[in-house]
Each structure stands twice: as C-alpha cells, then as structure tokens.
Amino acid sequence: MSAETSQKETSRFLAFPCIPHGTLKADKTPVLNRWSAKITNGHEFPGAQAMLYAAGVENEKQMTGAPQIGVATMWFEGNPCNMHLFDLGRTVKRALEEQEFIGWQYNTIGVSDAITMGNQGMRFSLQSREIIADSLETTTFAQHHDACIAIPGCDKNMPGCVLAILRHNRPSLLIYGGSIQPGHSEKRGTINISTCFEALGAHSYGQMETADLEDITRHACPGAGACGGMYTANTMATSLEAMGLMLPNSSTTTATTADSSASSPAKLRECVQAAEAIRVLMEKNICPRDLVTRKSLENAVAVVMVMGGSTNAVLHYLAIAHAADIDFTIDDIQKIADKTPMLADLKPSGKYMVSELAKIGGMKSVMKYLIQAKLVHGDIMTVTGNTLWENVKNAADLNFDPSGEVMIKKVEEPVKKTGHIRILKGNLAPGGAVAKITGKEGTEFTGKAMVFDSEEELVRRLENGEIGRDPNEKTVLCVRYEGPKGGPGMDPQL
Fold it and tell me: Which residues contact 156 (CB under 8 A, 6 or more apart)?
C-alpha cells in the first residue's frame, strides 16, 4: 500500500452551490435561503418552481426570499416512542411559518427496540440508523433545503439524525420526542418497560402468576414517549444535549403530561423555540461540524458515564466521530470512563425514571453541576448560538439533601467512582468489547460457562426454566454468532 493510499481519507460529499454567508438583501437583512435560491430564483428551473407552488408556496416573494427548512420526523404508528412525532413536526412547521420561513415536513422510518427485543426483528434495528441517515441526507441535498430540524424518538433515531446532519452540514438541530411517563400497577406500583422483561423471567421460573405478568404488560407503558429508564434513547438524548445539538432540557422534557392524556406543553414550547433557534443558526452560519468536535464528543461520553447510560452509546459515538472526521476510538472512551464517576440513580440499575429529572431542573441543572465539577466542557458552542455554560448557568442548583429525592449524587459520593462502561480487550475480542458494570455486581465474577449458538436458543431455554436452577451455581452465559456478520444486526438483549 502506498503512503498516499494509507493516509486516512476524510469524508467527501457533493458540493452544492450556495450564496456566501454574510450576503445581504436590499433591506440589509441577511440572505438565509442560501441553497434553495439555486432553484427558486431566476428562470433556470421553472419546473421546480411550478412544483413548489403546487406544494404550497404562496407567492413570488415567498418563492424567491423565504428559506426552506426540512422538518424530519421519525414518525410511525405502533410504537409509543414515535407515534407522536408527526404532531410535534406540525407544531414546528407552524412556528417556522411565524418566522416567515417555509417548513417542509417529511418522514423516514424507525424500528422499535422494545418490540423487536429477543426476536429476529432486532436484526433490522442498527441498520435503521443508516436508513435514517441516508433519508435525511438525501432529502436535504435533493430538495435544496437551507436547514434541518430533526425530531427523533427511539434508540437508533438520534444517531441516525446526527450522521445525516454531519453529512449535509447545513444549520440543524434536534428535538427529542421525549421520555414516556411511568406506568403504574395496582400490585407493584411504578413500573416501566424493563419490568416486563423482569416479569417474564420471574414467570418462566414459576415466581410470578400469569395474571401478574398480564397486569404488568397492560400497564407498563401508559402513552407516548421513549422507554423511561436510562436506556439507549434517553442515553443518546442526554448526551447529545451535552454536545450542544439540542435546546436546553430537550432530553428531559417528557413527551406527554403527567397523566399521558396530552402532549407536554413544555415540549410544544420547545418546538416553537426550535424555529427561533434555527434562524440564529442560519444567521450565524453555525453548522453541525462546528458543534461536533472532540471536546463535544468528550462531553457526550462523560454524560453517558455520569448518567449510567447504555453501552450502545459506544457504537454510536464511534460512528458519529467517523462521520465528523474526528479521530476518536474506544481507547478514548475508556480514558473518559476512568476519570468520570457514575452519579445518576436511574433505572434500569437505579431507583428513578428519566421523566422524574424534570422535578430537579432537568438536564440543565445536571449540566450546570457537571460543568462546575469540571466533568464536561462548558465552553463548547451550541444550537442556541451560546455556549453550553451560558445556556445553563442560571438553572436551579441540584439538591443533595438526603431527605429529598437525590437522583444525581455528589461527585464525592458517587454510585461508582469510575464509569460503568468498560472497554475489554483479550483473546475473545482482539478488537475490543464493551461491558456495562454499574458496581452492584462486584468487581469480579467467576462461573461455569454455558455457550449458545444463537440468541433464540438462549431465550428458549430461559423461558423453559432450564438455566440457573441452582442458586448456588454461578453461571456465565455466552452467545456466539451474533455479531455484525453472524447475526446480522448487532441485536442487543435485555
């Protein structure tokens, strides 16, 4: 291999002509329709203009002067994480019109990890990230959009959106669809989606009646919103907010009201604020590659550690770094884990639901504390046009009074002194592997290995009660052939 070909390649995308940033109109206001003007100004593309008039452009003034903003939702029915996103998109579209912009709403796919968990549908989850990225990239480029507001709701939605905006690199921001409210069972109190999987295990081993399992299944998910613990969706939302890609508190504003009967007023207000923020991004020419930097990636990974987030974040942030042409590896993730404590007492390993973080000021208050504790960088730029510290400095301080609800521990009294995500290396995984160790399992485990050739075989034997009958026998469950080639799909298992 020659020296030239051995050098790391950077991303290459089709260059679209645009009006230079800083160009002023006759009234001395900035030109914001920098890309759409290619097809909306002059007479070179009358067919395109005719189609846009048919789609809703009202007059020549709007055609030639209004920026066109893509409003990308991952809406689909049949999944609470996504079923409300179209309505959020409509709110954004109306807010854009108040800004005298044109909002073009469009949609792409999604996959529910909770619905596909433990079955072959999960093989399509990770690839949905790439389809989402391709969809947003394609629509933004092909339709000559001047900016993008993306509204993700489920696990692979968030990284898919970030990959896309890094590719087209036009002013963009994300609105998180929001977390679901807790479920409630008369017998078991507060429950959530994870309770269903735990109940299945108990039922399989004769420790739960069928009626109790059915009660949990019926009441675990009361309405719209992403799975309520610190699973992948909430992990990515909180950490992307730490990167500056969302408005403050987007990640901890719930999808619905407390009784799940209507959209959260705070989330609807955020949709309006997003239209205001996208104007700022266009006026200042703040683009995704200005926001996704090494420092913001360090912020994201640090927040994953602090919040006790999902191991899937490792997979996604390596992909995001690659898309941004930033040299960021699993070794960097381990270095951050070594110096970052786990502070959040959140499910699935802790006590509280993500929806409850709003009681203590939401992610703004958490971020303020983390910046003061020097665990994240406060000087990174964000989608507000201000730094992260400027966004959160006036937030309420966290309350560490043990008589109250201490969802975030002090740095001096952590859940775990170092990050719960560990990068493992050895003969079983020469390229590295990822483990989630919250500290409650101890620091060492030795047991008899049980090896399975597929996830389905493991699930079947668990459901039949064939594993772990002897409480005194320590067992290590090993599943082979479930990687990107053997799976395929890198499907996780709760």
Answer: 110, 111, 113, 125, 126, 128, 129, 132, 232
Q: Please, is 55 exposed, middle or buried when counting C-beta atoms within 10 Å of its C-beta (0-12, 13-18, 19+)? A: exposed
Record the tokens describing residue 331, joined without a space: 């070794």
Extract the tokens encoding 441: 């399992």
pTM score, two decimals? 0.96
Decide: residue 396, CB within 10 A, 0-12 exposed, 13-18 middle, 19+ buried. exposed
Q: Which residues pair with 422 in a beta bridge?
A: 435
CA 335/CA 419 separation, integer angstroms: 10
Contacts of 483 (CB under 8 A, 6+ apart): 490
CA-nearest of 348, 281, 280, 360 to 311 is: 348
Residue range 406-434, pLDDT digits in tens: 999 999 999 999 999 999 999 988 889 99
Torsion-angle region of 325 (φ positive above 0: left; ψ -120 to 50: alpha; else: beta): left
Three-state secondary structure string covering 34-58 = CCCHHHHCCCCCHHHHHHHHHHCCC
More confident residue, 245 or 484: 245
What's the N-to-C CA distance of the chain in angstroms? 43
Residue 144 φ/ψ region, left for φ over 0, alpha for ψ in the -120 to 50 degree band, beta for the rest: left
User: Are 269 and 153 a contacting pair, CB within 8 Å?
Assistant: no
Give the pair of three-digit tokens for residue 459: 């699930």
Which H or E run includes 425?
A: strand 421-426
Residue 64, phi then psi, degrees to nearest 5: -90, -15
- Residue 333's closest CA among 307, 304, 375? 304
Per-residue tokens: 71: 């409003």
Mind spelling out the 3-state secondary structure of 64-130?
HHCCEEEEEECCCCCCCCCCCHHHHHHHHHHHHHHCCCEEEEEECCCCCHHHHCCCHHHHHHHHHHH
Owner of token pair 């399989």: 204
Q: Say which amino acid occupies 33.
A: N
- Tallying the residues shown for the chain, one arrives at 494
Alpha carbon 325 to chain centroid, angstroms: 20
